[in-house]
Request: fold
Amino acid sequence: MLNLIVVTILSYLVGSIPTSLLISKKVKGIDIREHGSGNAGGTNVFRVLGWKYGIIVILLDALKGALAVVLIARLYLDNFPFVNETPFDDFTLVQIIAGLAAVMGHIWTVFAGFRGGKGIATALGFLITIITIDMLLAIAVFAVVVYLSKYISLGSIMAAVSIPFILIIRENLFHVDIPGYGTILPFAIAIAVLVIFTHRANVARLFAGKENRISFKKK
Reply:
């Protein structure tokens, strides 16, 4: 049990690394949360510092989720302390816990007063190591929505919501045997709900027509 707690805490701390704050301070000497939408995420970096730094932040945030799953989870050496009733082996379940902890760390970062980003990129890095094909399709949804609308928030929401539907379609219509489908599906639904919750202010601005569009021009 202690080993699992250590893995969870370490994953949370890695997820808590405030990449957007570090880069905005380094590049422009500002706290990104005091500009744009006030959010410490890649979308706001796009708005304030431009698309190049926005992409850098998104990639680094995704890397945090991937590191939690691929590296930190491997520090778990004990037997799982609970009865594992999922179709996953114990190590995969530990990876899911580590990835979720990293997402929580990104949203509520201990290094910046528990005011972090919205968890999209970190969740992407975490999930792409477990349901790779489904996540690549979700990334395609994100790219198309952002390209057409210029709203990263809308792209993020649509990508997150698309994941459960992609899982359902691949498993039930195309009869793809997705490992752990019965566990991954409700988990993906929970992630989608979390993404909508963290984007609730964006949703309100979208309906009010006040959400800022991104530009790919250099700031």
Q: What stands out?
A: The chain has one domain: 2-208. The mean pLDDT is 89. Residues 2-208 form one domain. The chain has ten helices and no strands.
